[in-house]
Amino acid sequence: MDFLTVVFLVYSFIAFYFLFLFILIYLQNYKRIMWVPAITKKYEVSIVIPCYNEEKSIAKTIDNLVKNGYSGLKKIIVVDDRSTDNSYNIMKACVKKYPGVVMAVQTPKNTGNAAGAKNYGAKFAKTELIGFTDADSFPEKGAIVKMMGFFDNQEVGAVTSNVLVYNRDNLLLRLQAIEYIVIKFTRKFLEFIESIYVTPGPLAMYRRKLFEEVGKFDEANLTEDIEITWRFLARGYKIRMSVPSKVYSVAPTKLKDWYKQRLRWNMGGVQTIFKYKRRFFDGTMLGNFVLPFFIFSWVIGVFGLSIILYRWIRIILLKYLSTTYSVKAHATILSFGDISLVPNVLLFMGLLIFILGILYTVLSLYSIKEKKKYKKPGIFPITIYTFFYLLAYPIILIVSAYKLMRGKTTW
């Protein structure tokens, strides 16, 4: 058995393992995906909004939070990280509009990352729970109240929400909308095995005493929302996700901005893996599942792309060389004996993985109900997402690892 076949078989095993794992989780828990606990206590909440040059969206974010419908929301702390646009003036106008609720503060100097602004704003929070929302994200009405019931379980340290794409005016945005929904679907599955690995910035809630106990956000990490979640898991705290708590986030509209964002996400993920590498198989869900899941999902992507490229290049070269030789030698280019109708096991396995992947994507898309203005993706964007968009993941990962090795960890 040649090396490439062994690699492909290992790759197939890992892919099938995770696909069937998620299928089993779905079959066991599909009735609980949309469930939220009843509220038995009115938790007081403060929400911090880090802001840097977000003059176009910050007022809308504040309005959405104030009007979200949860009476336990005591303070909205908007942190200006020394913006160079009109963001701070808009924030101060919102303070006058919502006196006693909205608080606008400025960092002493630009921190250069969201974690710095979040930690600075957290100093002003005195409530039992503390939440964080990005300045370009808009929680749907009722999103906050649907997160509260999960905190009745004292082992729950954080609750995350259902992050969706707000703007869908071009193909790139529609592809990201598909991506976000698939990620949401997967994240909820991971909750059922205590393995949610990120509490995304657009809307996440934490038990404040635990947030302070673990040391707040890591300002050296490019994905502070992943890193702090791993710290919660490392200490045995549980993470929950409220699927009905929808928050719509502005996604990059241009390919260059999208690439920079995904590069940062991957670099932060690699940073987090290296920080927690000693936790591998340490008996916790972080070490026994989350870390291997993170690694294997990247391995699948990189090896999958490598195998595809190798196969394509090999077939093209062999066809070109054999055709060129046959033409020059006046030999037969194709004979009936060259046509094989015997099924190829490796080809069958690859095709099965591909089909199951598409079915998983479609199931994810039809698992969620959105506002009427957001139509379900058609065949064309799903096809582009499957055949082209996903192929960019391993390329970006490789570039991210390269940049980290060279010490480039700037925002």
Could you characterize what this model shows?
α2 (58-66) runs parallel beside α3, α6 crosses α11 and α10 crosses α13. This protein has helices at 3-29, 58-66, 87-97, 114-122, 145-148, 171-191, 208-213, 224-234, 255-275, 285-329, 345-365, 379-389, 392-405; strands spanning 45-51, 73-80, 102-106, 129-132, 137-139, 156-165, 204-207, 238-249. Helix content is 51%, strand content 13%. By secondary structure, the protein is α/β, with parallel strands linked by helices. Mean pLDDT is 86; it is low at 333-343. It has an eight-stranded mixed β-sheet with strand order 3-2-1-4-7-6-8-5, sandwiched between helices. It has a single domain (1-411), classed as Spore Coat Polysaccharide Biosynthesis Protein SpsA, Chain A (Alpha-Beta Complex). It has 13 helices and eight strands.
